[in-house]
Amino acid sequence: MAHSISLAQGRPYLAIPGPSVMPDAVLTAMHRPTPNIYAGELVEMMPGLMEDLKKVARTKHHAAMYIGNGHAGWEAALCNVIMPGDKVLVPATGHFGISWGEMAKALGAEVELIDFGRNSPIQMDRIAEILEADKAHEIRAVLGVHVDTSSSVRNDLAALRGVLDAAGHPALLMADCIASMGCDRFEVDTWGVDIAVTASQKGLMVPPGLAFVFFNDRAAEARARLPRVSRYWDWTQRANGVELFEYHCGTAPTQHLYGLRAALDMIHNEGMEHIWQRHAVLAEAVWAACEAWSQKGSFAINIADRSHRSHAVTALRLQSPQATELRNWVEQNLGLTLGIGLGMAAPGDPARDGFFRLGHMGHVNGHMIMGMLGGIEAGLSALNIERGSGALDAAAAVIGGAV
Ligand SMILES: *Cc1c(COP(=O)(O)O)cnc(C)c1O
């Protein structure tokens, strides 16, 4: 070709698994003068925000909000029910499960880590054995990550509840649904989740900075067992706020709350069932393309079984360093940013450049997904990366067939 030109000008597309694409309605809602925190609209808005958040989580119980990211939510949840010396069971299926377990350990918990690797979900029979062997009920909590964003595995947390019940074990079921709330079906009450942790910047479509912890009465009783919980992390006052500062243990995250209000309006106008279905169809389109690409060459999907895949993130592999080359190419030439591989190889290990991830969470629709897949096809083609054919046709057939 005579010319070499970047085609990156135009609206960029950040297709990483969080922070996700922010809707204009959210950004516009946040772009305002700082509101009064002592009276008026913001103060009046707060109870409704909490109620609408609970509807996203499908819970009628309690909710606490924190100014912080997902890690803050993890710590908040742990601090309210786990004391130094308490035993915690961590069935890990990727980087995030392991990290949550490490946080519990740093807080003084005795952590039993069961590592199921990076390519498969939690094996419930292994967990059943451990719980049944724990006759003294020393295990206080099981930390289950619903979707581990690093491996893109989706675990069956309702089944994990079933395992606890079958063993007659009183441990709390604590769930990380940071990558799945607002994307994959997640039902706190029906699934028997005692504590659920999420954050604003993934399916909830609000910039990073808010963490949410949902908890039921069993969890509140476990909180009451603790002699003290640091005032800042204690969920009691936050979940029973009357004054605005009580919800936040200080100044409210003013503009974020307006962004959250706009996001919750979008979410409930669309409806949870529709949101889950939209993510399922768009994920199926992504899988159809990836399965076609993986027919030839080194292209591979991390989670082989569709029924164990997240609907919001897809972890992929190419021969190193092709994944990094592809990410660089689509970013520089198309304005499309794909996610790096996470927790799949140690820092400094050249194998790292063989992993990448696609984020398809939150504010995404048919043309964005087709655009992302088309961009990847263009990159694979430009870089002469061997792959199977028919990826875009396969994705288009899923999307065309669904509407
Ligand atoms: C993003 C994510 C986290 C961490 O959230 P931060 O906001 O980066 O602290 C934890 N767990 C899962 C499953 C995630 O996707």
What does this protein structure show overall?
There is one protein chain. This protein has helices at 24-30, 41-57, 70-81, 95-106, 124-133, 157-166, 217-225, 235-239, 244-248, 254-270, 272-293, 322-334, 366-382, 391-402, and strands at 13-15, 62-67, 87-92, 110-115, 139-145, 147-148, 153-154, 172-176, 195-199, 210-215, 300-301, 313-317, 336-340, 355-359. By secondary structure, it is an alpha/beta fold. The chain folds into two domains: 24-269, 3-Layer(aba) Sandwich (Aspartate Aminotransferase, domain 2), CATH 3.40.640.10; 272-402, Aspartate Aminotransferase, domain 1. A seven-stranded mixed sheet has the order 2-10-9-8-5-3-4, sandwiched between helices. It has a five-stranded mixed sheet with strand order 1-13-14-12-11, sandwiched between helices. It starts with 12 loop residues before the first strand and ends with a helix. The model has no long low-confidence stretch (mean pLDDT 97). Pyridoxal-5'-phosphate binds next to α3 and β6.
The N- and C-terminal alpha carbons lie at a distance of: 39 Å
Q: Could you name the CATH class of the largest domain? A: Alpha Beta
Bound molecules: pyridoxal-5'-phosphate
Radius of gyration: 22 Å
The CATH topology of the largest domain turns out to be Aspartate Aminotransferase, domain 2
Q: What is the N-to-C order of secondary-structure elements (H for helix, E for strand)?
A: EHHEHEHEHEEEHEEEHHHHHEEHEEHH
Number of strands: 14
Task: Specify the biggest β-sheet.
Answer: 7 strands, mixed
Strand content: 15-25%
Note the overall shape: globular
Which spans have pLDDT < 50 for at least 5 consecutive residues?
Answer: none
**Reported CATH architecture of the largest domain:** 3-Layer(aba) Sandwich
Q: Give the full name of the CATH homologous superfamily of the largest domain.
A: Type I PLP-dependent aspartate aminotransferase-like (Major domain)
Organism: Sulfitobacter mediterraneus
InterPro entries: Aminotrans_V_dom (IPR000192), Aminotrans_V_PyrdxlP_BS (IPR020578), PyrdxlP-dep_Trfase (IPR015424), PyrdxlP-dep_Trfase_major (IPR015421), PyrdxlP-dep_Trfase_small (IPR015422), SP_NH2Trfase/AEP_transaminase (IPR024169)
GO biological process, one term: glycine biosynthetic process, by transamination of glyoxylate
Pfam families: Aminotran_5
